[in-house]
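Predict the holo structure. Ligand: tryptophan.
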Amino acid sequence: MSRLKDGVYGTNSVFIPIFAADNIFLMDTVVSGIRSTGNLHLGNYFGALKNFLRMQDENNCYFFVADYHSLTTHPHPDDIHSNIRQVLAEYLAAGIDPEKATVYVQSDVPEIAELYLLLNMNAYVGELERTTSFKEKIRQHPDNINAGLLTYPVLMAADIIIHKAHKVPVGKDQEQHLEMTRRFARRFNTMYGVEYFPEPDAYNFGRQLIKIPGLDGSGKMGKSEGNGIFLADSPSEIRKKVLRAVTDSGPEKPGSEPSEAVKNLFTIMGVVSEPSTVEYFREKHASCEIRYGDMKKQLAEDIIKVTEPIRVRINEIINDPVYLGRVVAMGAEKARASAAATIREVRQIIGYRPF
Ligand code: TRP
């Protein structure tokens, strides 16, 4: 590879302008892992994914499928592969661009397992036992308290600091894990007297965080609550689910506040429909002329407008193993280059030397 004044020729003779190549070093590094439990819903899409899409333009992003993590529940070997494919297809279909972000499968990067081993030597059983998620698991599955569950936060720390990440977009439920990541990074730096690993911050998109409610009149949309609309749902499934959504017996008097369940439908409408459509139904509600059946029909069609292109794309991608294979190979190569560089330096810092 030869470096010219204002650019670089790659080995494939493609000219890369220097500003683009150098940009990588000016951008923040973002890492986020997605467990391979599949089936994203509207809440995931509007709550998190749309922000991932925005991040991939301005940051050096690594998005991976956390398939080592999924082994804590002992999935059947037949299911592992299809779960990974499903998550990958859904994220790519929703717009994560493997040319912009590094999209990879965790188990393709064994350097992560090595860093996990090294970090385990400085992680204390006491602090791991005190982790909220571990205590919850003990309660939920007392028959399967494996060491992988105990050291889950160490593996997660390895996932993140292997790329020397600055920002980790995760939900509130991951806050404690991220605090532990910061502690493990700091401990490594202190132990060896180096300023090596940055302490990554949780990143949750400030004010734009939207909570998408479920269709059952209460709470937020969830994967297992039975109140969700999935990106992979067909139009007829979506129509059926929306028509069954909880409402009330109609506004009591002109101008009265909508009930919680109806408010939820307006919230979803606010995200998927034209402002004029929302306004129309708000006025109908205010004047007690609203017919919830009409509102639901409109809502279902507007949801389908968002989800249908994604669903079509999910199916195309799932059925294109060549494309998926290409994405995964490219991601593995980029992720391994970054991970191997870190491991090389970490080994030196620890004191391993070539003979
Ligand atoms: N623990 C995360 C979850 O349950 C998934 C995850 C694993 C992760 N490794 C990560 C998230 C690294 C962010 C960064 O959702």
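The chain is about 55% helix and 10% strand. The radius of gyration is 23 Å.
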